[in-house]
Amino acid sequence: MQTYETLRQLHPCLGERPGNNGRIHLPVSPICNLSCRYCKRSLTDTSERPGTSRRILPVEDTVKVIRKARLLCPELTTVGIAGPGEALASPHAIEAFRLVDAHFPDMIKCLSTNGLMLNEKAEELLRVHMDSVTVTVNAVEPSIQTQINKRIFFHNEWMEGEEAAEILIENQLAGIRKLSEAGVTVKINTVLIPGINDSHIETIAKTVAENGAKIYNIIPLIPQADMARIPAPGCNEIDRARLAAGQYLDIFSHCRHCRADAVGRLGGEDFGSQIYGNLALEPAHFSHG
């Protein structure tokens, strides 16, 4: 397991600025257990945003795909799984990381999650020697969380309202705490939503820092789905949020809104089309939760 200081040097999404290190995202996760009001997941070869991929990658193709990617981009240091669905809503991500751990022990392993199942899956993540986990925490107050997320699917049941929000927040913080105590570097993503959680950023940052998170990434809202009419935050709003959060955590400030099948260096050529091809699966193969 790599230390936080080492990851800051080698992981392209943890350093202070874009470097020469690259990452490959494995789009193995087809389903989601949350219904977020800002989310619009799709199988596409055109949209440049999270939650999009050309196709769902079969887990058994993991080793072949990484070998091909390393030939095209020798600078790859990190294997990440960030969708296009929720990484811990199905077993595919952890199965893929078992293959990565066995065949590419030199590569950094990184997973992105909404955190609903993080506490329950923490031990499995530790067994595959996870180096870093990114958790999207948009609120730590249920009344705010309910404005962002419509419902959760937890233990085979759809749940709504503040009860669902409390379950989500409790599991996020417990999972962050458990992984941090075991030495895993935890990064927090927060989607900055004007009028909803923009005044809540300092509280989020303080809370996740108290539970062991190391670094914070504030992502400006992409107006779409149920939040299509909410304007994206401006530079001043983003700067204020970063200043507030920076009292408690290191700030990551060069997020590129990466696709779930991104391959290459941040800001450099993306090899995703050469790795995954341009043919998307039929919509029926993808669950929107």
Mind sketching the topology for me?
Blueprint: H1 4-10, E1 22-25, E2 34-36, E3 42-43, E4 52-53, H2 62-72, E5 76-81, H3 92-103, E6 108-113, H4 118-127, E7 132-136, H5 142-148, E8 149-153, E9 158-160, H6 161-181, E10 185-192, H7 201-210, E11 215-220, H8 235-245, E12 250-252, E13 263-265, H9 272-276
Parallel strand pairs: 1-5, 3-4, 5-6, 6-7, 7-10, 10-11, 11-12
Antiparallel strand pairs: 1-13, 2-8, 8-9
Helix pairs in contact: 4-6, 5-6, 7-8
Brief account:
Helix 7 (201-210) packs parallel to helix 8.
Using the coordinates above, name the CATH class.
Answer: Alpha Beta
CA-CA gap between termini: 33 Å
Structural class, from secondary structure content?
alpha/beta
CATH superfamily annotation: Aldolase class I
Label the overall shape: globular
CATH architecture type:
Alpha-Beta Barrel
The main β sheet shows up as:
8 strands, mixed
Determine the CATH topology: TIM Barrel
Summed up, the helix count is 9
Give the rounded overall mean pLDDT.
Answer: 88
Helical amount:
25-40%
Radius of gyration: 17 Å
Order of helices and strands: HEEEEHEHEHEHEEHEHEHEEH
Q: What is the count of β-strands?
A: 13
Low-confidence parts: 278-289
Beta percentage is 15-25%
Q: Give the spatial strand order of the biggest sheet.
A: 12-11-10-7-6-5-1-13
